[in-house]
Amino acid sequence: MPNIQIQMRSWQYFAAIGLVAVIHFGAAYSITLIPNLKLEWEIVPIWPPTGVNVAALVLLGSRILPGIALGHFFFYLCFSTKWTVAAATAFIIMLQAWVAAKLLKRIGFHPALNRMRDVLGLVIVAAPLSSFVGNSIAIVSLSLLSGSSLWSKWWSWYLGDIIAILIVTPVLLTWCHSILDFRFGILDWRLSNQCKNSETHQQTHNLKFKVSSPKLIEFAVWMTLLFGVNWIVFCSKTSLEIANYPLEYLPFTLVIWSAFRFGQTGTSLSAFVGCTIGIFGISRGNGPFLIMESNINSSILYLQAFIAVEAITGLILTATVNERQQSEHKFRELAQTLEIKVQKRTLELEQKNQEMANYLRKLQETQQQLIQSEKMSSLGQLVAGIAHEINNPVNFIHGNLTHINNYTQDLLEAIALYQDEYPQASATIQDRLEEIDLYFLQEDIAKILSSMKAGTERIRQIVLSLRNFSRLDEAEMKFVDIHEGIKSTLLILQHRFQNNACNSPIQVSEQYNELPAVECYASEMNQVFMNIINNAIDALEDLERRRIRTLEFIEPTIWIRTSLINNERVKIEITDNGIGMTPEVQSRIFDPFFTTKEVGKGTGLGLSVSYQIVVEKHQGYLKCRSEVGTGTTLQIEIPIRQQ
């Protein structure tokens, strides 16, 4: 049996003993108020103190036994001159209640009576067995004290005790249990599955009190019908006029109502009220169970048997309803728990899938970065090798052009000297001079040598730009001149500025402010400039194709601007007056493999790699501003010094 007993101090304990004694005395005294009830050796067909005793022991424990004994002893002293009989019956009554409480404790009884096990334990185990033990001992003791056999009264006494346990004990247990819950502030008129101590209380549906107008109105109507119907059935003269109809079954409808709406508290109350009104009606000579007005003992016994059946039916029905409600509640909790677990698991799976997708994306990006890095490394090595191989013969040619020019001037001077000294040349020499057009040769050879020198100088600048762009000997982060990298990139892309799909060469406007040396990966930053300027040229070519159809002409131009921000960061802006981009395209231009170019013309990696170089490797920013039909600006910001 759950430990619900109240902790009491010494004075509270003695007060509880006194209270139990008074209640026992009052319950016993109520029997004497029934007129025409015959008492033979204190054996009556009704004995409510038995139900009071069992309820007191269940709620307060064996420590309350002295209160039961005192109440019974003083009652018998008041109505009997035999103190021995009073002492003996007090002991027997106390023993009977103790046996009932022990039996209930063995089955794990709970006073709320909301489980079928509790109801069956009270009906099948505690009531019949404890009454059998107590009544048998009492009959033997009284027979010895009186000297006459009282076994003929055993059945009447036995049924009276059983009925008291079935009618009085449930109403006391359920209502006292609700009052005990009220002390902890959880008593209301609704079903609840939460007990005040999960370790010592079974999960049960308790009838509780809460200010709820519909529920209070329903309970008031039910109580009114309870008293009214029982009064009509057991006390009213009207019931005698329609005696052919079984009116005594009408209270069962209220029991069923209570079972579904008010729990065991209402069900036990309906049986108790019906029994009380029925006994009152029999005492007044009314009711369907009245047999003989001169001797109402048998009538009361029949009435109590009927009410006991009503009580058992109500208790079992209510327990079944409560267990079903509890099962439904647990099922809903399990369903909710399962739903929560499913949602949690689904969320975990979604998170895992998202993580896997992120890992896959990062793996693809890393793979493409490695491929791109390997391409750039190979390209850098190729460019550096070609630049080195071209640089040697070009330097040789460029260096010897000065000597050739000097030698040629010397030869031309010698020829002029001969012409001055020997103005009359032979016919053969004169014919040869006319054939080679000496005067044109003297003028043009200087121009040829000058053009050759300019060409070799141009080749040397291109080779130097290739070496600066590849930066093969500067793989580590170093301080470099950003303008030098931009100019090298523009020189390499010079062919695209001149030979493109536009009607005219693409103009490049360079607006450079003074910048300090910037710490960066030079070759990778040059790669960023290359990717962005290439995209700008593609945009201008696409714009030109569209404007050819509309006969509109705008000079294709790329603006490159550099500036210093707070002496901490450098900003490079590359702007074109191309076709521009929609907001949807702008939001995805840095995604890997996203491209708006034709198949085979772009891979969608240029800006993605550029973004990673600027943002991840240089802790900078790469932003895009664009408007359809106006153009696009790519803005690069990187710190002057890396942390």
What does this structure look like?
The chain has 643 residues and is α+β, with helices and mostly antiparallel strands. It contains 18 helices and 7 strands. The strands form 2 sheets. A 5-stranded mixed β-sheet has the order 2-4-5-7-6. Strands 1-3 form a two-stranded antiparallel sheet. Strand 4 (557-565) and strand 5 (569-576) form a beta hairpin. Helix 6 packs across helix 10 (263-283) and helix 6 runs parallel beside helix 11 (297-421). The longest helix is centred in the middle third of the chain and has 125 residues, at 297-421. The relative contact order is 0.05. Mean pLDDT is 78; it is low at 182-211.
Summarize the structure.
The chain is of the alpha+beta class and 643 residues long. Helix content is 66%, strand content 7%. The chain is built from 18 helices and seven strands.
Topology:
Layout: H1 10-32, H2 49-60, H3 65-79, H4 83-106, H5 116-146, H6 154-183, H7 213-234, H8 238-241, H9 251-261, H10 263-283, H11 297-421, H12 427-436, H13 438-470, E1 478-480, H14 482-492, H15 494-498, E2 507-511, E3 518-520, H16 522-550, E4 557-565, E5 569-576, H17 583-586, H18 606-617, E6 621-627, E7 631-639
Parallel strand pairs: 2-4
Antiparallel strand pairs: 1-3, 4-5, 5-7, 6-7
Helix pairs in contact: 1-2, 1-3, 2-4, 2-6, 3-4, 4-5, 5-6, 5-11, 6-10, 6-11, 7-9, 7-10, 9-10, 9-11, 10-11, 11-13, 13-14, 14-16, 16-18
